[in-house]
Amino acid sequence: MMLRELNDTQIEDLLKNQLIGRIGCHSDGITYVVPVNYIYDGLNIYCHSGKGMKINLMRKNPEVCFEVDEIKEITNWQSVIAWGQFEEITAIDEKQQVMQKLINRIMPHIVDDSVPPSHGFVDEEGDTVELIIYKIVITRKTGRFEKR
Description:
CATH architecture: Roll
Number of domains: 1
CATH topology: Pnp Oxidase, Chain A
Low-confidence stretches: none
């Protein structure tokens, strides 16, 4: 069993090909790691969210960590960790473009006929919740793998 490093091409491929990653954020003594749907364009990671702990923490401390992996079995996996800055996207046209790209990327993998909202989420009470679109501007990334 030996842990090895992914090269730059392998890191880029894993980031581009996965659908779900995990964001790690920290503020006010709280560390929070949560899975998110995302797209990666070679420079930035783009995500969407409703208001909540993750957004609150990232607004207070924009330094975040992002992790994505592909696990085939216990000794056959690869993982990338990226560090970067949370930036909220506020321009309506850019928000719409990013949301459309997220929908185009995720919809082929959704089993039922539901369509993700384009301007907001609907909560359990049926109220519309503001949709927050953001990016992580990557400053550093590393990758590891194990294959037996």
